[in-house]
Amino acid sequence: MQDNLTWWRGGVIYQIYPRSFLDSRGDGIGDLRGITEKLDYVASLNVDGVWLSPFFTSPMLDFGYDVSDYRDVDPMFGTLEDFKVLLAKAHSLGLKVMIDQVISHTSEQHPWFKESRQDRTNAKADWFVWADPKPDGTPPNNWLSIFGGPAWTFDSRRQQYYLHNFLTSQPDVNFHNPDARQAQLDNMRFWLDLGVDGFRLDTVNFYFHDAELRDNPPVPKGESKTLGAPETNPYTWQRHVYDISRPENVAFLKDLRALMDEYPGTTTVGEIGDDNPLERMAEYTAGGDKLHMAYTFDLLNKPRSASYIRQVIERFQRLAGDAWPCWATSNHDVERSASRWGAEEDPIAYPKVMLAMLFSLRGSVCLYQGEELGLPEADVPFERIQDPYGKVLWPEFKGRDGCRTPMPWTDGTQAGFSSIEPWLPVETRHLDVAVSRQQENPDSTLNSVRRMLAFRYAHPALFDGELNVVDVGEELLGFIREKGDEKVLCVFNLTGNEQQTALPANVTSDLEGHGFNAARKDNVLTLPAYQAAFMHIG
Ligand code: GLC
């Protein structure tokens, strides 16, 4: 592993969705004590740390991404004391702890918004984005909410509209106001003082909006739509020029970095949903004075062929310089990769090679709970749907509940997650691939992930080296990772057919310890279905 200051560079961060990890109290909802109980398991995966999705005080209309007190734990998840215990246990296991910071918007229940909406003259009057209606009473401009409808809701007291990029109950903080910005940085300092190792920054390119409130232009016919929202969502029909990714954000990210730098060894990973996500990721993570890392929806999207992935990598490489990506193929917002990418594939073999590919890219990695088990997306019937986003766009888009169902620990009652019926149903297909079933089988996806991560750490080129894509034919994905004297050629067969290729470089030895099979005769490589090869080259 790496030193304590740069652990995040090439680190693998295991994302925990607290509601669905482990219910220690028997109320059907996961909690902090449940997470603490399972940290040994997390450490056994050979990951570097965890990212905890929000556990702060919240009315839970967006399941914690609507915060009403940034400095406390919601009683549903436990207490601040429980968090301190979690942190100490994680650190004793050598795991870093990153927490989610949702500073772009608050809950409408947050005291700042309660005050702000009272009238136009209170102390927080300008802390949110308020604007007068057009003369005909309609919203100030054409901006849309990702979760449906206009991005503006009228408030009768102020006789004004307020901005929200998500639910109407998630008012957007006005980052043009210096006091509001500072207050959010102070909230972050609270957690740094408690000893957290970093933040996942929700919607990091949404902090600022155009102060002139100009209309967004439509996406020209035939041009590609915004990543990060389903195509059935009209939000993707606009070019998001004025509502997000404003130039002022860069200066704020520098202030945020200055705060982080007061706490050596801490880090940030920003979430970027944008019209030009890779450009934004490069812009925000280059130079060592803004974010440490960011992730985009490029690999959280539908396309998945070797040539698509190659194109994403090459595009980022062209822009990158010293920018540092964090790649993710699953998380709490998208259909699980085993289904999204692997629906037509072998459900056991495919996730292993897909994850091996993910772990070999240049950058850090977010690994979503259950991804190490190769879990398919759960089928959640309409009557059980919780996600407000799913309710709005049903049935074309069923929302995000299918990737948020309980973690299957055993094949017993409620998958060992809870003693009662959980908030989202356990997916029956998950029982066959529960942790207890995979644990003892050396060939399981779970043990393949453990092996692959140990292999990654044994080869510095794999976690911290440069990357150059090589041509190994249309069906395969190949690249060279290089650090110091070590050069590793990596080739992946993500298809269900055997593939053969002439190798583009001189192989000096085949590497072992990763668990995949390949046959090499001089410079010709034969990769059976869903296999990978790793070789030292001269
Ligand atoms: C981010 C979160 C998502 C949430 C949204 C609004 O995209 O990942 O879960 O709904 O922001 O906060």
Automatic annotation (TrEMBL):
Output the Pfam families linked to this UniProt entry. Alpha-amylase, SusG_C
Q: Which family does it belong to?
A: Belongs to the glycosyl hydrolase 13 family.
Matches recorded under InterPro entries: GH (IPR017853), GH13_cat_dom (IPR006047), Glyco_hydro_b (IPR013780), O16G_dom_2 (IPR045857), SusG-like_C (IPR056300)
Glycosyl hydrolase family 13 catalytic domain span: 15-404
Keyword Hydrolase included in the entry's annotation:
yes
Q: Which organism encodes this protein?
A: Vreelandella zhaodongensis
Protein name per Swiss-Prot or TrEMBL: Alpha glucosidase
| Keyword check for Phosphoprotein | no
Keyword list, A-Z:
Glycosidase, Hydrolase
